[in-house]
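Why show two proteins at once? Because comparison is the fastest way to build intuition. When a single record is shown, students tend to memorize it. When two are placed side by side, the eye starts asking what differs. So, the first record is below.
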Amino acid sequence: MDRAQESSKQLRINNTISSCIKQALTGRLFFLAVAGIVFALGIGGFADFWKAACDYREGLIAYGTHLTVLQNAIKSDALCLLLPVFAALPYTSAFLEEIDSGFIKSYLPRAGRWHYISAKILAAAISGGAACTLGTGVYYNLLRLILLPMEKQGTAEKTDATYVLFFCIGMVFSLIGMLFSILTSSRYMAYASPFVLEYTLIILHERYLKKLYIIDPKEWLCPSVQNWEFGEAGAVIFLVLVSMLITVLLIPAMQRRLDGR
């Protein structure tokens, strides 16, 4: 009997987590977020892309131009300003929407409070990270498709670390949006707060705290070797720690909302 109860409980946990993640990754907002990241990168890298297309008229361009376009797009203000909004788009307001609609009253007793909270946080983190990673991957492969035939022969460079970095950045901004939406009881803050916080951090770094590079979102997008001891890996570790800190703040905030406070 104990085994049957334990098995049923584990199945319920798995169903709760998988249903939340599926909801986050298959909704229209997720695909809109992916398209938004591609759009932001396209704006940021357009000047370099156009220059490469013009240079091709005189012959084959240097190998790695597609990677240079990607790197400059990542450094652009367009991506820096738009990424927080698109990262928060897929699932950050889902928790608040389910409370406001009353859906939580019938679902929570079956799912369990702790499992429900864990599933919502996990789904928000994964959806934000996946949207940024997938959007970057789509843009990069479009560049390869268009520019590689124009380039000379060369050895390909790996971009795996960039995908991991973007996943972590998306995860952080998604969790930030979720936290502020719960604290303010506003779904709009889910999308606005990551942008406002990012802009505030940039101003603080550029005007007052120039030596404190870890608070600069531009450094997260393109970690400089002289600042981060382990390069992109160092930035990834920092962003994972930030995500854990936000999660610690999220759990009691969500519990208070479930209690109606």
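Second record. Ask yourself what differs from the first in the token line.
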Amino acid sequence: MIKNNIIAYGEVLLRLTPLVHGDLIDQSSALNMSFAGAESNIISGLSNLGHNTTMITSLPKNSLGKSACRFLNSFGVNTDYIKFKDGRIGSYYIEHGTSIRGGKVIYDRLDSCFCFEIIKETIWSKAFKDSDFYVITGITPALSNECQKNILNSIKIAKSNKVKIVFDLNFRRNLWSGTEALKFISKIINDVDILIGNVGSVSDIFGFEHKNSNDFSELESITKSACEFISNKYSFDMIGMTIRNQIHATHNQLGGIIKVNDKYYFGRSYNLEIIDRLGGGDAFVSGLLHGLINNFKNDEIISFANACFALTQTIKGDVNYFDEDDITDFSSKNYSGHIKR
């Protein structure tokens, strides 16, 4: 296996959810505690697949910050560049949906210590010296002006070190408007080598118009059109997009698409029962990068990424815990759920 050095920058959040899966917060007397964040989910998944990874972030100088750091370390993520400082950790609460009832996420991340930290150029220069990929998402620049400055500065230094930029659009309506997102993203998008997104994010940020559909083949066609739409505006080495047909909260059909050199690759889709709705797109990114780094053929890359996407939705938590053998075995065989003996 080929290993690359991959850097990510973003906020690590405290994740709190009712101890009984599917319960409402109103009826819960206990919450399960873990940690997550789009960038840390991606980097943890890549580390779990055997890559050398580094997380750049800020955490509070208390037990919560230490626990978050140990969580990253448990996957093998390098945390040497984490800054511990006074302040609070951002958090979010999840009520998992079931059947016809959708899930709900409540954020409590305003004024976290991550939002106000300006990272020194010397840190970026040292981190990117022997690195291959830099992972960022559209969530981080929506948090503060300081985060925007860090991203602009880090991209400049990353490009000077010939590091490839991986950018997941990850649009969040409760953090900023599509107009605000486009204003910032326009400053960095020409430096992006690999763009990740979905139809919704391309629509919200760039104004892609499309019809709604519950037919998966139509969703594939719409997603292909979204790739073409964004390709007509900007140039990328690769575009990857997830596809989700939500029959109800706990029954989804999942898939994805990549575009490389004007060719499209779809791979296999999966009908499955959802255990945990969050983190699937992040697992897709981890799988895509793993396949790309290891010189998989393009149809193998999307098959592997789709399998990561689907498998992560069958376990609790935001991170893909499966290794390459598990994922390859799942993607290449019947996934009827029989016990493997």
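One difference worth noting in the second protein: The longest helix spans residues 145-160.
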